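Support case: user asked for a sample of complex input and structure output to validate their parser. Sending the pair below.
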Amino acid sequence: METLSDLQKTLLDALVPEHGDIPGAGSLGLLPLVMADADDEPKSRALQVISAALPDDFVDLSSLQRESLLLQIETAYPNEFSVVVNMVFTAYYCDQRVLDGIARHTGYNPQPPQPKGYQLPAFDEQLLQPVRESPPRWRTVD
Amino acid sequence: MSRREEPVDVVVVGAGASGGAFTWSIARQGLKVVCLEQGGWVTPETIPSLLPQWERARARTHHPNPNVRKNAWDYPIDDTDSDISPMLYNAVGGSTIHWGAHFPRLKPSDFRVRTLDGVGVDWPIGYNDLAPYFEINDAMMTVSGLAGDPANPARGPRPCPPVPLGEGARRIAEAYNRLGWHWWPVDAAILTKDHGDRLSCNNCGPCDLGCPRGSRTSTDLAYWPEALAAGAILRTGARVVKVTSTPGRVTGVDFVDESGELVHQPAANVVLAGNGVGTARLLLLSAEDWCPSGLANSSDQVGRNLMFHPTGMVTGVFDEDLSGYAGPFAASIVSQEFYETDRSRGFVRGFQAQTIRSDGPLGTALGGYLPRLPWGNRHHEQFSSQFGHTASITVTTEDLPDPNNRVTLADTLTDRWGVRAPKISYRVEQRCRDTIRFGIERNSEVLREAGAREVLSIPLVSSAGFHLLGTARMGADADMSVVDANCRSHDVPNLWVIDGSVFPTVGALNPTSTLQSIALRAADALAGRELAEVGGDIV
């Protein structure tokens, strides 16, 4: 008999599966963070509704079977499902292991935007030459 | 039993964009002024862009919608009857704490829409009335940009050079050039060179979370230090619950201080700067037997004509990595190719197309510029194709005054002190939807010309209630407006409204530059009148 937390962990893995060397959201251990995030009535209720809709054998299903089942649940409870997806995405994309993984693939700086920021080339006024040559295009009024 | 403060010449309600500018000016002109702000100071070390959980903060504690954020100093807004949900911030600096700092001016034609296009109403003032105040304000707000834009009247040299474009905006600018369309680097209240102890922008991206370097200007940095030095008094944690009055005159305001005590601040003049929702709410809350429908509301215009700037969004997905998350998210270039009326398009008025950079990892996943990413087995593929690979263009339109789009008092919803919350009722008019559709079609062409392999659009960004305008409009006709051309109430001569509420129409441009200039002009008007009474000197 699977526990509720086993089902929910599998739910998280199904919503955000493993990717390369980064485990899925459930296997990353993000369930406690998602639970803690359900700190108001709409989020708490959404998590309860979607969790209750999972069958006892959800853990034993194949990846495709889980996705098919979740599509049915999403159709039945669109608002609640959307809230849960947002909570899972939020937990996943704020996890430093995930951000480090994105950085390895993209060159993204996985640290907070500040204090480092980014270097960008200065504005090139040459680009504006055609616009500078155009006539005034705002309406004058009395 | 309430405590009573010493009387002042002027009490200002709200320390945001307009309240900060106004208080600075009025204090320098020698009047005794107190400003009451329900929020507090935002300190640089608390700004989320310094924190690993910065994107979580944006989605929760620093969300632009007070109904989501629910900070202790916020009031709720009933938006259940609105197509667009509101964004605002309560703090010293107001919503400039959480803005993108795009800083255009309304154009001359925006002040004459009835005369030119037969819709809306004309303003009782024009561009030239505000021109000197625009220049003062640009200097105070340390605007970056470039003079010489052929789509706008001439203006002085910008205090700072333009914000860098980044790869996405550069491609879009080149596409505009190939199409022969207008574009120009934005005027932005963002430092691109050091200014005193404030540092030049380092292109970190999320200006909307605040700027720990002080590069992105907000009025707590631009106006308040000088206002306080000039003698203005600023009280934070002061929630104004009522403007007090006797028939025909206001006598001051009642506010609840941080300890929960009710305090009365007597004043010769009351100046409201609480934005298009907060100011209308306060006027309605201040009803008395002599003004049963609300203060300054004999015209029944208080709360009516709410305008937001309905906005659509079109996004290009590029094969190449644009590193679109780098750079101030809302500041790069704009096109005003389709700004002025061309009746052959099938609608009057126009739109501004503003290039927007792409989002961080969580923002990409949750959507906003694009629909939310799919969950499940296609999730990572979609994330990889979009993250850092997008550039967006907003299509910002001009909604026109409609008396049925309005702020009222909620029937049952209250703030945590039991004071009735504002309710907004708002529908996007069909003309705006037609304009957005046209704008999305045109700017889809631009993105394809720029090399996007896929172009997607959102016909209405329902969360983008970022400009709260029109609910106490100015006008020459006291039966159809709330304040006169100087922002002074028609009904109550010592009551003034100086925020975006006074806009009779709103153009299709971000309003902060214009509303601050209106506030500076109103300060001169009030000081000129007051100086005759109190014998002060103009600095």
